């Protein structure tokens, strides 16, 4: 018996530029989490979804976020309509990268990345000039919310990605303040790899009473999908660069993202790998 395929993105009521971007990304069939979340999220419902890493949850919230902006576009100065909060710089950068791909066929949707370790002044300028979608870490976002440059009174969609980790990493108070300041009449989507007391607390404080609970995890002991391979190399500090170069050379036909602990480290490794190893690498940071 043939296994039933998940629905195609074309079956959803989403804009043509979004479908065009998905096609360019090589995506046509929805994953389980996308099939469960997208119809309800696109209708403006509050969502609490538990899904493993690698399940496609990022697109499950990015597509509705883009559609919120499309429905509210006008010829005036852009206003912030959607905020996506990630627990770490690395995850925020990853989400922002996918977002840029999704909106690549729109010429009237703006976005910005608000994370620590970057110029606060430049971020303030972006927010003051107006952006439709903000991807941020909690601490830096709350910093900007306490300034007059950032007008967030029009926010109609809030996404909390890896919500349990936001609390785990010590941003509980910042997140509470952010939620309190945002408009109450908004759509909220909460995603996490596992369900916990933290997510229950967030449901109480951040969500409407009528919320859709979605769990695509059959095995809650595993936070990643079965098809996702993970590995690591244990080596002395002086051999790390050697192993990184070796792994990048081996993976040149694949998409690879490398995260470092600081902006200076990003700049150093980018310069070294492009200048001395002849690798084609883009830099974000």
TrEMBL record:
<dbReference type="InterPro" id="IPR000629">
    <property type="entry name" value="RNA-helicase_DEAD-box_CS"/>
</dbReference>
<dbReference type="GO" id="GO:0016787">
    <property type="term" value="F:hydrolase activity"/>
</dbReference>
<keyword id="KW-0067">ATP-binding</keyword>
<dbReference type="GO" id="GO:0005524">
    <property type="term" value="F:ATP binding"/>
</dbReference>
<protein>
    <recommendedName>
        <fullName>RNA helicase</fullName>
        <ecNumber>3.6.4.13</ecNumber>
    </recommendedName>
</protein>
<feature type="domain" description="Helicase ATP-binding">
    <location>
        <begin position="38"/>
        <end position="213"/>
    </location>
</feature>
<dbReference type="InterPro" id="IPR044742">
    <property type="entry name" value="DEAD/DEAH_RhlB"/>
</dbReference>
<keyword id="KW-0378">Hydrolase</keyword>
<dbReference type="GO" id="GO:0003724">
    <property type="term" value="F:RNA helicase activity"/>
</dbReference>
<dbReference type="GO" id="GO:0005829">
    <property type="term" value="C:cytosol"/>
</dbReference>
<dbReference type="Pfam" id="PF00270">
    <property type="entry name" value="DEAD"/>
</dbReference>
<dbReference type="InterPro" id="IPR027417">
    <property type="entry name" value="P-loop_NTPase"/>
</dbReference>
<dbReference type="InterPro" id="IPR014001">
    <property type="entry name" value="Helicase_ATP-bd"/>
</dbReference>
<dbReference type="InterPro" id="IPR014014">
    <property type="entry name" value="RNA_helicase_DEAD_Q_motif"/>
</dbReference>
<feature type="domain" description="DEAD-box RNA helicase Q">
    <location>
        <begin position="7"/>
        <end position="35"/>
    </location>
</feature>
<dbReference type="InterPro" id="IPR011545">
    <property type="entry name" value="DEAD/DEAH_box_helicase_dom"/>
</dbReference>
<keyword id="KW-0547">Nucleotide-binding</keyword>
<feature type="short sequence motif" description="Q motif">
    <location>
        <begin position="7"/>
        <end position="35"/>
    </location>
</feature>
<keyword id="KW-0347">Helicase</keyword>
<dbReference type="GO" id="GO:0010468">
    <property type="term" value="P:regulation of gene expression"/>
</dbReference>
<dbReference type="GO" id="GO:0003676">
    <property type="term" value="F:nucleic acid binding"/>
</dbReference>
<dbReference type="InterPro" id="IPR050079">
    <property type="entry name" value="DEAD_box_RNA_helicase"/>
</dbReference>
